[in-house]
Amino acid sequence: MAMTGIQIFKLLPKTNCKDCGFPTCLAFAMALAAGKAELDKCPHVSEESKAQLAESSAPPIRAVTIGTGDNALKVGGELVLYRHEKTFFNPTGLGVVVSDTMSDDEVTAKVEKADKLEYERVGIMLRPDLVACKCESGDPAKFEALVNKVQGMTSLNLVLMSDNMDALKAGAMAAKDRKPLLYAATKDNADAAAELAKETECPLAVKGTSLDEVAELTDKLTKAGLKDLVIDSGAREIKTLLRDQVAIRRLALEKKFTALGFPTITLPCEMTDDPMKEAMYAALMINKYGGIALLSDIQGQAMFPLLVNRLNIYTDPQRPMATKEGIYEIGNPDENSPVLITTNFSLTYFIVMGEIESSRVPSYLLIIDTEGLSVMTAWAAGKFVADAIGIFVKKCGISDKVKEHTLIIPGLAAGMSGELEEELPDWKIVIGPREAAHIPAFLKG
Prior knowledge:
alpha/beta; 3 domains; TIM Barrel; 8-stranded parallel beta sheet; 17 strands; Rossmann fold
C-alpha cells in the first residue's frame, strides 16, 4: 500500500537542501505521495530508503523503455485518467510492421519511408518511433536475417514479433544490444518467453485472449522477476479494444490493480485492410491510452495527422508551448531591415515567422516572454503591454542592429501604440496587420 506524505518524509534526509526542486523535504514528500514527483529527484536519499519508497514513488502504470540512447522510446508511466487533471507524459509510439515473407524491396521501401519521414511543427520534430519485424515464415534463420537487415537500415526502435520461440530467440539475440520489445508471451510459451527476456534483458509483451488471462500472465511473469512488460489484450475489434484500453487504465489508476499496471501495445494493422480505417483506429488509440500503435505502412497523408494528434494530446494542457525570448533574424536582415514584435506562444511565432519568410523581406522578429500566451490573451493578462515591451526593446540589443528605429506591432495590440510611443520615444511605432496572413503584403507595401 502507498505511504502517506508523513511516512515518506520520515525516510528522507530532512536536509531541506532544495536539490529536488522543492523548498523542503516535507513538500517533496507530499508531492511523492500525490504521485506528482519522482524519487530520483532527491540525490541524497539512501539506498535503503529508496527500496522502501519504491512503491510510493512508482507510477501506477509502469514506465517501460524500448531501445537505447537518445532515440529510446518510453511508454507508460502515466498518473491520470484525463489529461486535464495533470498531463499525459509518454507519447504513443507509432511504428510500421515488416515481415520476413515480404520481398527485400518491399522491406527496404517500408523501412526507408519510416526512417526518413519527419515533420517540423512549432519547433518540434515529429517522426515515427518503431519498426516491428514479424516472423510469418516460421524460419528462425529467415527472421534473423530480416532483423539484421532492418537494424542495419534504421536507428528506429525495434519490436520483434513471433509465435515461434526459436525464431523470436534468433531475432532477439541478433538485436539484443538495441533492447527491442519482444512480442509476445502467451499462456502457452510464458516460461520460455520469460527466460528469453531475462537472458537478453529486453522488455516483453504479454498477449492474452482476455484481460483476466493477461492479468494472470503478468502476475506470473512479475513473480518470475520480470518488470518491464507491455500488454496486448488480444482484441482485434475496435469496440472491444477501446473497452479494454479504458478498463486497463481505470483498473491500474483507480483500483491500483498492479497486474494491469503496464503500458499497452495495439495493432491497428491487424484490424482492417483499409488504410484510412487503420489510421483512424491508431488515432483512437493515441487518444485512449495506447502505449504503442503498429501500422501496416507509413503513409505521409495518414502519419502527419497522427503525429499532430499525438503532439496535441501529449502537450501539457496547463503549460502553453513557448518559444525562447530574443531576437530572431529571418532572411539575413541588415541595418535597414524592418523590426516586428510578437509573443512567445510557439504557434504565433511559427506562423508569423512563416509569413515573414514567404514575403522574402529580410526582417528582425522580436519575441518577448509572455509565458506562452497569444497576443490577445497576453495583452489581457498584462504581459504584452507597453511597459514590458519598452523594457524588453531597450535591453535586447535591437537598437544596435538597425539604423531606422521603427517597431511594427500586431494589429490586435493597436490600442497600446500611444503608451508604447511614450515608453520608446526614440522609436516610431507602426501598427501591423491584425492577421498574420497579411504580413507579406504589409512588408512589401
